[in-house]
Amino acid sequence: MNLAGLSNNVVKFNGLNYADWSEQIQFQLGVLGLDMAIMMDEMPAAITETSTSDEKSLYEAWHRSNRLSLNLMRMSMAENVKPSMPKTENAKEFMKMIKEYSQSDITDKSIVGTLMSELTTKKFDWSQPIHEHVTGMANIAARLKSMGMEVNESFLVQFIMNSLPPEFGQFQVNYNTIKDKWNFQEIK
Fold first, then answer.
1. Are the beta carbons of 65 and 35 closer than 8 angstroms?
2. What is the CA radius of gyration of the chain?
């Protein structure tokens, strides 16, 4: 098993993408049968002289899962966030702390800034149908709204119009010459 190769198949955690990162980490660990440490509520009891072979096996499997889970999670972090990551040796705690970190006020402000930048600078590049481009911009506006930053529908329509390339020039001229303002549904 090559953890470095596996970490390349997982989206890098950048502080803002916990949901995607977590889903991919859990999938990779599950496929490999290494998700025991993040699935169990608590780690197994330490091995003693009276431990049964089943208890010893469980303890060893959990420790292997925990060690490799932590390694994979740490290897799939962007370099700029690694210094601020929690210092724990428990994979389940690590995952929980990462989630809390990604939901902090600082992260929310950063996400809002990133989404606003994406919304205002996004350009249609023909790599997808126009409908998907428009819907994608509306989804960004919806995410902003869910974070307390509402984008007025007229602004959204204008951002969409501004994102269109010169080939849509006649469409833009027609839009600008009519009196009525379009809503998002009409532009789709």
1. yes
2. 23
